[in-house]
Each structure stands twice: as C-alpha cells, then as structure tokens.
C-alpha cells in the first residue's frame, strides 16, 4: 500500500474514533441532563401530591377524596401509594416493584418509571406517600437521538472521508508523478556520465554523450521548474505583472519552431512565470499530439489547435469536468493539464477543450 494511503487510513481512523466518541459523549450528556430535569419534575409532582394528602388527611371525607384522586392518577398511568401508620389508604403500586432510596428508576412491564417516596405531616397525621410515573418516552427520545447521531455521523464520515481522500491524493500524487519524471533524466545522465568515464571513446561519441547530457539536464531543469511552480500555486505566491503577449509567444516560438503563431493581443496581466508554464505545457501537449499546431491570440482568448487524434467524447467530458486525465487515460494528451487548470483558476480565467475528428483538438483560454 502506498504511503499516502496509509497516512489517509491512519488519519481517517483517528477522525472516526474522535467523531464517534464525541457524538456518544454529546448524546450521553444530553440524556443525562434530560433525565435529571425529568426527575426534578417528578419530585415536584410527588411533593405536590404530598401537600394534597396533608390537606385531606383529617378532613371530613378526606380519605374518600384520596381514593378518588388515586383512581384519577391510575387512569393516567401514574401509580401512587398513600399509607397512614400501618393502614394503607391508596395503593396502586404494581406488586414486586422494589424502590431503592427516596428516588429511583424502576422497570415495570418492560418500561421505565421514576419512583419517589416521601413523608408528610407529623404525629397522627404522618403519611407515607409514594409517586411512580412512566418515563419510557425519555428513553425512546434517547434512542431517536442516538439514531439521529448515527445517521449524522455516517454522513459526516462519508463526506469528510471523501474530502480527506481527495485532498491527500491531490497533495501526494503530483509528488509521485514528479519522482517518476525525475528518475528518467537522472538515469540517462548517470548512464552517459559512466560512458564518458570509460575513456576509450571517439570525439564523435563524446560529443553525442555530452549532447544527450545537456538535453536531459534541460529536461531535469524543466521538471524542477514545474515543481517550483506547483509549490507557488499551493502557497498562493504569485506576482501580477503586465506582460507583452507578443514577447511571450515569440519565446514559445523559439522553443517550438514548428508551431504557427497568430497574435492580435497586446498586454495581459498575470504572473509571467506561471503564464509561461501554462503556454509551455499546453503547446508541448499539442506538439506531442499532432503534426500541425497553431496558436491564435485575439479578443481576450488564446486558442491552441492541433490536428492530432481527437479526444473521445467521454474523455473530453471527463477532462472538462475534472480538469485532468487519469494516468491510465492520459495517452499522448499530457499529464500537466491539472497544473494548467490551477494556473488558469488562480488568474480568474477559464479554460476548456473542444475536439472532433474533422476539426482536431483546440484548447481555449479566455482571459
């Protein structure tokens, strides 16, 4: 497995652990707060019942009123017990339900209830009051909250995971590509250097080896320059300057004498080194793709045309949508297209490709 993928997995697993623990902690704290609030309400209602019992005890017909009151509570699935001394006045508590302490959560028929006990009155009017209320809805709410957090967590994991993967891929893949491009010229330089060191070679062979070394050194310099350009793009280090389009295109003409140039533009504003890199990449791709290449600059638009093999519709759509070719699909269309799109985007310009079997391939940069 590639190093950047291992780093991605490590970062993603760490993110999953932190996210899930955070959501679990948030859910637990929310439920604990809700439960404490609900228990406080149950305690208040038990106290209100105790005050009512205290007022009815000893009054004429008070116990009958308590029995009627208990039936009303029972119809609302609230169970109470009122006892005076050894005598029970009202008792709707389910059998077998044990209450530990003055306030407890008990289970009855598979549902949770909050039970609160307390004393009221003094002396002969001393009463023992128990109040038990169904709070299963609180636990259902917690289950719904956990489900909502689970769905939210999965969505966040999918979105952040995808974004993290694409970001790390975008960071590491250019480095891998640059490494491959550096290896070839370095291997050639090493080979011809060793060839010259052999000593017994003709002047013609020495000149040829030197020519190849200079050629590969230029290629190596171009790759390093491209790496520096990519670094500046990542850091946003660009300098806007006024540049003469005629001079830029003349410089491209010297690099690629076979290219036909038509210029009707004057001055443009941008980072000169990045603009040169942009034109050089696009013209190089066009030269590699076709025998005839024409560069036309007019009406705030630079067009680079070649008569090579046209780009299939599927690949063309992919190119204009994703701004680069996968290495498996690049063929002779070049690997620097993604870099070109970054330069164009940084300047606020637009770039797109057009291709057909009859008209060839054209890339247009709208300045």
Quaternary form: single chain
Describe the main β-sheet briefly.
Answer: 5 strands, antiparallel
Low-confidence stretches are 326-335
Give the number of helices.
9
**How many strands in all?**
12
| Order of helix and strand elements from N to C terminus | HHEEEEEHHEHEEHEEHHHEE
Average predicted local confidence, pLDDT: 83
Q: State the shape.
A: rod-shaped
Q: Rg, please? A: 40 Å
Alpha-carbon distance between the termini?
A: 42 Å
Structural class: alpha+beta
Q: What helical percentage do the residues reach?
A: 55-70%
Strand arrangement, major sheet: 2-1-5-4-3
Q: Could you tell me the strand content as a percent range? A: 15-25%
Structure keywords:
five-stranded mixed β-sheet; alpha+beta; 12 strands; 367 residues
What's the quick description here?
Helices cover 59% and strands 20% of the residues.
